[in-house]
Amino acid sequence: MPVSENNSPVVTIVGGGPAGLIAAWVIARHGVKVDIYDGQPTMGRKFLMAGRGGLNLTHSETIERFLGRYGGASDWLSPMVDAFGPDHLRQFVHDLGQETFVGTSGRVFPRCFKASPLLRVWLKRLVDMGVTFHPRHRWIGGDQQSGMKFEHGGGVKTVTTDNVLLCLGGGSWPRLGSDGGWVTPLRLAGVPIAPLVASNCAVNVDWTEHMCSRFAGMPLKRIGLGLAGARIRSEVVITSAGLEGTGIYALSSEIRNQLDKDGVAILEIDLVPDRSIDDLEHILAEDRRKKSLSTFLTRRLKLSPQAIALAHEGYSAALGQVNAKQLAHCLKLIPVTITGLANMDRAISTAGGIMRNGVDDQLMLHALPGVFVAGEMLDYDAPTGGYLLQAAFSTGCWAAHGIIARMRGGSSPLNLGA
Known about the structure:
The protein is α+β, with helices and mostly antiparallel strands and 418 residues long. It has 15 helices and 19 strands. The protein is 34% helix and 23% strand.
């Protein structure tokens, strides 16, 4: 395997995103030399994209609610998030000289609000710790016997190593490196992998031409959303092809499951979640004094034009002809038929990946001893809001300590925090 100048082992990390970079930090702090290989010209490209509108690092809610965001994978990720959780992540960022703050929604951001200042300091610290970066090396497979193989410089480069960590992401944003190309070689090696599917992505709705041309790009704020028993308050954005935004992303798994089961998913939208049916009926029974329904709804309920248009879109009957009780029920439950998901290459993340029975308790592949995995390669799903990044950091730290434990013949410590 590779050795440093003083003949000590070198750990090979494949993937220069959050999981790979935090793992390098952990391993280098133990005095072990680290080489990071990445297919892109520079490290952290998807990390930078995630911070384009403000880098949402993690969330400040209780750990019980936090873990619940991972659905069926919450028990699997629980020890990893406990060991390196939101407070540890904030301390790590502070140690890099970047202060954090909690927004009104409970989300945690760096004070500078951007990813680039944090990434610059992070990469410099790793260089100072002796970490070596190898850009433009695209992993194409390999094992412990033949070595890990990379496409580089028009040919194939082989790197032999006894300890490697794969952090290659899922299948979203392929132009930034997460193209799911690792699935085939690992599946051929006997690794159980659930199919990668789009998550945290826009959904398709067959809008009328009026809805598309008039309201595409406009938000629906402070609304209620319901599907398959799940109920949230959030906001969405109307697109020419359907809907996107925080509320849709939060319901990704429910929408996907409903589409798989029935071919369509019926999203229920409540335009006035803060008002009861009785309260709403009382308001709608008021004398409009010859005002149009749209004008009345705008003035009395503060509904936006796009919200009113959505109500008309959801019901073929003219809303102006129904009584107050019927109208109240219409505004509280507008059915929107979702016909599909946007393409995976436009998704924020993917669900699916390496199944939990494919790795041991320290995230080493059963099929490839000495090969560990972390980040979005693992089979979990999470909404936006800091949960995706936190899982990348937590699993990267966990796998890094698993590597250190294997090198030293011991077990991984329970507390991985800085």
